[in-house]
Amino acid sequence: MNEKEKTILLSVPNISGNELKYVKECLETGWISSAGSYVDKFEQMVADYAGAKYGIATMNGTAALHIALLLAGVKPKDYVIVSNMTFVASANSIKYTGADPILIDADPKTWQMDLDLLDEFLDNKTSINSEGERILNTDGRCVKTIMPVHIQGNIFDIDRFKFICKKYNMSFVEDAAEALGSKYKGQSAGTFNKLGVFSFNGNKIISTGGGGVIVTNDKLLAKKAKHLTTTAKVDPMLYYHDEVGYNYRLVNVLAAIGVAQMEQLPSFVKKKQYIGNYYREHLLGVGDIEFQHVNNEVEHNDWLFTIKTKYQKELLKYLNANKVMSRPFWMPMNQLPMYKNCHYITKTDNCKKIHDSCLSIPCSTSITEEDLKKVVETIKKFYITCT
User: Fold this and answer.
1) DSSP 8-state assignment for residue 106
2) How far is the C-alpha of 207 from the C-alpha of 261, rounded, in Å?
3) pLDDT per position as a tens digit, 168-178
4) What is the pLDDT of residue 235?
5) Is the CATH number 3.30.420.40 carried by domain 19-262?
6) What pairs with residue 129 in β-bridges?
7) Nearest to 379 by CA among 329, 318, 328
8) What is the CATH architecture of 265-385?
């Protein structure tokens, strides 16, 4: 394909550091599986970057969420409150525990969990039973914990959220899969409570191909997480397992990629933020385009730049036809067949409006100035010729 005809991709890995060198070392030494120095190093690098004491690496972010929920004490028939606007892995990890999600609609500006709805729901629809558990009034089932999701790497009002959690004696597990590099009042996403989870899928700000890390400051939780993710094996020499465990550990050869990626993370975050600022500057006032609102206290990693327009379907078709890859938002959980009967807390179904009007545009950390210019010019041309 002629260089001028290439497609500008959405968000691809940037393999430009020591990835090959470290992977080659794994292959040459034979340390390619779940044991090896790169696993330990990657875990600690992620923990250190986030400002946490411990990191536990897993095969993907979904596995990390599953283990984090188990560590939070989630049991079958419990409820876990979660953002309705999220990637399906969030809800799936809840179902893996045997619990069911209670879905909360999104704030129309930030696209994060609507805290007004959360507060009203806990106040009006739940109560404390004789055992001191918060239960759903209609069926008496335990509402065990909350899973806030930092959508697109953005972060809502953490101070207010923690106040709500304290008010109703609720714990929370952070789904920070998209938010590595984002901060609230200088504190890293994933560290606002005992358990946070990052993802390293192929389209994330750094990637191990597939991978996740649980971060925590609690030594006992970290020990338990590592135990559960390594099949609950008690003795490294004997095949004795003391409970149902999971073969969830990240392998050394992928952790080696992760170490090389972590070495470049600060520059990747800066590039993502540069891309975000570029688009905000050059697309401001173009057609009816709106941007995700970011609160002043938030340092946004601009992981996957997304715009809002009533011409979403038409613009998606136009951009992809002109070799500018773009994608719609994730389908809200309540619109998926396996979650359509879940409790959905909403007044105006903002999630549907967001889904029907948002699309993500190219923002790889390797994107060139020429390609950024082409994306903007293509969008502007759409509004001139097609609206």
Assistant:
1) B
2) 7
3) 999 999 999 99
4) 86
5) no
6) none
7) 318
8) Alpha-Beta Complex (3.90)
Q: What would the pLDDT profile of 56-112 be if each residue is shown by its tens digit?
A: 999 999 999 999 999 999 999 999 999 999 999 999 999 999 999 999 999 999 999
Distances (CA, A) of 350 to 113, 156, 158, 210, 334: 10, 16, 21, 31, 12
Non-local (6+) Cβ contacts of 236 within 8 A are none
- Give domain limits for the chain: 19-262, 265-385
The H or E element containing residue 290 is strand 290-291
Strands of 183-184's sheet, edge to edge? 187-188, 183-184, 298-299
**pLDDT of 98-127, one tens digit each?**
999 999 999 999 999 999 999 999 999 999
Amino acid of residue 221: L
Per-residue tokens: 219:
């030594």
Cα gap 299→125, rounded to integer Å: 34
Give strand pairing partners of 324: 8
Q: Which residues pair with 214 in a beta bridge?
A: 56, 197
**What's the rounded Cα separation, in Å, for the pair 98 and 94?**
7
Q: Which pTM value belongs to this model?
A: 0.96
In angstroms, rounded to a whole number, what is the distance separating the alpha carbons of residues 140 and 119? 19
Domains 19-262 and 265-385 agree in fold: no
DSSP conformation letters of 319-384: HHHTTB--EEPPPPGGGSTTTTTS-EE-SS-HHHHHHHHEEE----TT--HHHHHHHHHHHHHHHH
